[in-house]
Amino acid sequence: MVPRKERSLDKLLHILEDPTRRRILESPWEKDLSFNELGRICSNHGRLGYHMRQMREIVKRVPNEKMYRLTQSGRVAWDWYAQAPSPNARGNLEPTPVYVTYSCQLGLNEHAFALYEGADSRRAIAFPFLARGLTRSMASIYVVSEKEMDAERKEMRRRYIGMEEFEERGAFTIMSAEEWYMRRGKASSPVIIDNWSKLLQEKMSQGYKGIQLAADMNVFFENSKASELLAYEEEIGRNFPKSMSAICMYDSHRVNSGRVTSLIGSHGHGIFL
Q1: Residue 160 Cα distances to 52, 132, 165, angstroms
Q2: Model confidence over 234-249: pLDDT tens digits?
């Protein structure tokens, strides 16, 4: 028998696979919405009715009223979208930073690098990106320094209700940068890339569409492996996996102009705070 929490997670991910249903979720749910208000998203009322039935786990009709309201599960999902809305999202009380919107629109086979200043700005890029990946049936992976893993896990769980469940399921994983990128004091591009390939195959065999990755790359600098880092980025940039979406994050104080130029050449996107 499948545990209840796994069944509910499967349902939520299935609901959010469809772009129309994601647009419905991105509506201004600070209040109950009418069928006509939701109809602005899907002009075909027959199709809208179909989608609302598919979303009954997260949207319910208010008894005796022609209004719809988010369920508890729906509120959790909407909270993720409220923190990282798409360009079509409406009703947000504060404008979303451009870099958040941009990062959350990265798709499969897109490889970006980001410059940040401090843990807060790194989280501002990584957290919405990783949370959005979960709603798209991706396996979200966060690679950070081993000494920061506990703090990042705690903060992710504080900001996003339900993250503990996703981590227990394997949909969300925090990994040690030291263990992943450094083996016996060495940083070998072929080994790292092969490990990504194996992990990608593993996640896809479990039913995920691919991997959504946010990785802090400063472990290379801390271990005096800057040249190995640039070689790795260049190599993976040439043959970036089709079923991955990734942001490689760099502390701006560690990256000089020459390295930025090299990173621009090995990534298709750049994100600057």
Answers
A1: 24, 11, 11
A2: 999 999 999 999 999 9
